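Changelog-linked ticket: iron/sulfur cluster example.
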Amino acid sequence: MAELRKARIATASLAGCFGCHMAILDIDERLMELMKLVEVDRSPLTDIKRFTKRCDIGIIEGGCCNEENVHVLRDFRRNCDVLISIGQCAIMGGLPAMRNAIMHSDAPLRECLEEAYITGRYIRNTTHDIPNDPALPLLLDEVYPCSDVVEIDYQIPGCAPTGDVIYETLAGLLAGKFHGFDRMHIKFD
Amino acid sequence: MATNTPDEQMTGPAVSVPSIPVEEIVSICQTYGNDRHRMLDILRDVQDRFRWISPKVMETVASQTCLSRIEVEGVASFYSFLSQTPKGRVTIRLCDDIIDRFAGLAAIAEAFEEELGIKVGETSPDESFSLEYTPCIGMCDQAPAAMVNDVVVTKLTPDLARQWAQSLKAGKSPEEIVSDRFADLSPHARATAQVDNNIRHAGAVLLGPVPDDAGLKTALGLTPVQIMDMIEASGLRGCGGAGFTTGRKWKFAAAEKAEKHFVLCNADEGEPGTFKDRVLLTERPHLLVEGMTIAARAVGAREGIIYLRGEYVYLRDLIEEVLADRRARGLLGEAILGVEGFDFDLRVQMGAGAYICGEEGALISSCEGLPGEPKTRPPFPVNRGYLGYPTVVNNVETFCHAARILDRGAQWFFDMGEEGSHGTKLFSVSGDCLNPGLYEFPYGLTINELLEMVGGEDAAAVQVGGPSGTMIARDSFHRRLTFDDLATGGAIIVFSGERNVLEIVEYYMSFFVHESCGYCTPCRVGNVFLQKAIGKFRKGLANPEDIDYLKDLSGTIIETSRCGLGMTSPNPILTTLKNFPLVYSAMVKPSKDGIRATFDIQSAIDGARHLAKRRSYIYDEDFSK
Ligand SMILES: Cc1cc2nc3c(=O)[nH]c(=O)nc-3n(C[C@H](O)[C@H](O)[C@H](O)COP(=O)(O)O)c2cc1C
Ligand code: SF4
Ligand code: SF4
Ligand code: FES
């Protein structure tokens, strides 16, 4: 066994609102404790765009709505020992998955884009175009939860989860004694 | 949906929506004394006469019965034989069960579609025809089968389908097609002209010779308690599926002090693959009413109801004739057989195409003119049932057995069968066997013995008890048909090795999705998820963990559902997972290095490729070329 090193964590936001990343910051002053134990590799928090090393824990916010999400998620799976979905979007598809509800249509994706950019009642789109820059990743036919695309080891529920539950999960995992959530932390009603 | 439907008031004269005179609706309501408890009868009559239940009709019915329109709509929208858009003058309902699919339904549907110029699910623009699918109509031994208005057609072939369609188009009524002298036939002859009984083996109790009303005559010499003791001592258990001890059920109801008691017969027979009650209703209707009359004497009921499933409407005249005959002979009505104070009469309540109405609480709701939703238990029907009064609900076969027990004695019945499963049982056998039909045997027969008798030795799977029962494989064919081993309300469906087990399971799940009353979320939504998950298995898109998902979700549905439908709906999955594990494991695709093999990025982006008219810079290898 190599000498004790800091655990490496990576995070990414796929089809999410960044709320879950904000929630990570809700750990507040305990962040200091945490940072004694970990270093953050690839993450919007560090603005590191590529994995510099293999990571112990990957944290994914948001599900997959486009090809780039799939690409990033697969990259995380390859480079992380433990992969965690955080928040409803990552776990179930969340708000973006509302477009999956367009079912009784021959072209649900087109219908969705047309309503979002052209025909919707409150749309002000002077060009009447659907954005189609070559740099834009292609959309998937549906929004997929992360677990449909790769194997996910843990899921932290909530929209967004509280800083407490995020902290306790990470602290537990790092100490090698994560035994599930405190009921009050995942009780939402 | 109702706001989108054309109404006779909103549409101009150009559209040929039949106008529904208010007086006619008022008069239909009056036929039933403007009684809200007869809502199903009222709406059935409207549907029969005018082919739909328009928003205007609902308003009229509501004001006649002192209900709100939404309460009427709640009933009108619940039953699949009631329609909120105009139906054709002839509605053809093709049985869409898995048995019919395996028996060539697709070609028959196509023949009808071609001849009638409409697709399944449509009504022709001139409103001459509607073509629909419906779940099992109880003709599984003569599949493929269909209903044409109130008439049943069995053993359909594409040619026969064409002949029917052509005759109907030529203006013949379904009844005329069955027989030129349909009107002159007795109700019994009409029924047997449409449907074969297919009695393959008569046992000692029900299908052998049965003397007229011998049981009732014995009952007259006994006190109610003696009758119930006798039924209990015989070991008779309910034949509708749940197998509750009949004598005890009657005693519970009798012990309940109340102004009135009721005796209800469950002739809803909706469990796919079950058709035994159909044959009893055709060949032993007197025995059934005799049994109900005995039950009435035992529990002190003066009124009863036979709840007849809508699909068996072709048997209604036959039953009504039997009731009339018995009234004329003093076997129903006041002072039965001259016994002062022994009054009992009953009515037939037609259902309207809802499997859930076979559940006793839902059946009672339906008789009360409500949507056919199960009731929360307790209170149980024996304590507070129909209109709040103590009510005995028994299956057709149970009542018939009871009448025979009164005639031949408890010991005679007790000695047949096995410990805990006494007497004989009717088995409705269908599917891949040479002799589908009805078999009466004492409890305790093994599946192997039965298969030999029915010419089903090639069976690879047998569905015992219908979709809510158990699917077993060859290694279980030594098991016995008893309450304690393989319980069944009567359905035995044989599948040969050529059949795809997952296709069967997927169909059964779609059946439960269709038939869930929707009250409990786990049943309403969970069954949809289960069906989708099975779809994933069939397409080879399931992960190994999906097997656990099936089990977990099934457990949740079973635990949190209010009635027997939700408590048994995962059975097709759970019993095949147990008895056909390889069928599932062969279909799962394990992940590679944690990346799901079941997610296909190419098909997921294909739609967007076409919309955006460009290729993927990540997943199209030739992107840069
Ligand atoms: C979803 C569901 C459907 C049922 N369908 C029928 C049926 O069609 N016929 C029947 O006799 N019992 C049916 N039952 C069972 C009844 O609820 C009830 O137990 C039975 O009618 C009691 O009669 P028995 O004791 O004579 O069997 C059904 C139960 C459930 C949960
Ligand atoms: S789960 Fe909620 S907070 Fe997290 S990304 Fe989705 S919408 Fe935002
Ligand atoms: S279990 Fe299903 S069918 Fe039964 S009451 Fe609940 S929703 Fe209705
Ligand atoms: S009638 Fe078609 S399967 Fe029962």
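Closing comment: Example verified and attached. Residues 79 and 161 of chain B are 26 Å apart (CA to CA). The two ends of chain B are 53 Å apart (CA to CA).
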